[in-house]
Amino acid sequence: MASKRKSDALEQVVQAVCDAGQNENASEPVADASVAKKPRTVSGSKEPSAATRRDVVLEGEDEDEVPIYDDCNDIRRKIRGLMKTPGWKVTQWLRDIGGINSNSYRRFMKDTGATSGATNGTYVAAYIYFEKVRIFEGKKKSAKRQRMEEEYPNGLSLEDRRKVWVIMGK
């Protein structure tokens, strides 16, 4: 008989994840240990790509100029989805993505709007994290992401448009 409560169903999911185990990092749970050990290949190549998400190198990452194609709302949505992962801890994740201050993270999550929070360091660090995870897992770009790449070939601006003054002349 199916469980009648959401909490019962959630407990089953949590138990399944705990039984499968987690990798060395608490912020990156693994659903199946055998999946994590397979060498991944970049689409179109025969050689294995990065062993972990940290080994993935993004275009412009060496110069600290990674073009960003997700707006702040997208990043907040992804973070909220990550928060639902069993065993995931905010403080550990903030350390993993670059030692982000928890106050900075809190301010970013409290903001609303597509550009509100673009100047915050959490935005850039979280975007890089999610992009590396997407590449590591071999997922395709979303339709919105492809549209953003066409509209903004150099990436989105890292300034909050709500705080820009426009002066009209005569």
Feature tags:
170 residues; 7 helices
Q: Brief description of this entry?
A:
This protein is 43% helix and 0% strand. With 170 residues, it is mainly α. Helix 3 packs across helix 6.
Question: How is this fold's topology laid out?
Answer:
Elements: H1 6-20, H2 33-36, H3 72-83, H4 90-96, H5 102-110, H6 121-137, H7 143-151
Helix pairs in contact: 3-6
Number of helices: 7
| Distance between the ends | 74 Å
Largest sheet: none
> Which percent range describes the beta-strand content?
under 5%
E-strand count: 0
Mean pLDDT across residues: 76
Secondary-structure content class: mainly alpha
Assembly type: single chain
Whole-angstrom Rg = 19 Å
Helix content: 40-55%
What's the overall geometry? globular
Helix/strand order:
HHHHHHH
Low-confidence stretches: 20-48
